[in-house]
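Exercise 7.
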Amino acid sequence: MSILLINSGDSNAFAALLDGDEKVVSYASEFMDSSEPRSKKPDKLIHSVYSLSERSSFKKIEAIAVTIGPGSFTGIRVGLSIAKGMSFALGVKLIPIDNFTLALNRLNRIDQNTEYCVLLHAKLPEYYYSLVKDGETLYSGCVFIENIAEIIKKEAIVVVDFDDESELKHHYFKFINLKNSKSELESMCELARREYTCGKLTDPEKAEPLYLKDFTIKRPARN
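Solution. The predicted structure, written as tokens, is:
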């Protein structure tokens, strides 16, 4: 089993080649200089993929796993475009992975009888959210973090990746912090293996991004 992984997340964009139990990874941050903002990481994904091709053969690739959102509009488009282009070139199918599933799978244990509310960074102070139970999405959307208690039920467990500052700031609701859980790379490898084994592959032309907000262009104010 040889699968190419493409993760276009703003904070940790990477490309990796999973070949059996072996994996080779190239992070987009490796190709940035100190003058470039963190949000530009997905733009460097093509360099990550090229770096992998120099270290490992792509001839054996059987599928391409790619994150489809929600998240940065630019990151989603860049990652999905690269994945689709390579899938056509290599004649393989895609394994679309949404970022809610990717985050929840970072938990070491998922209780199928528990309702989880997965939070992902949007444009702060907004967060994307998805309520999940028994592997099914109940509903999802975008919310200001201070209003999250109005959306989730009391028994739902919030799952979020907070840094130390956010952890202290949002102590008024209970949550599981993913910062000490499995990495995104480990989680994505597990999901890609599982989906490939189950035959859940998608034709590249049918793979769609997961957007939860409308894209808006800020226009400069007129004098």
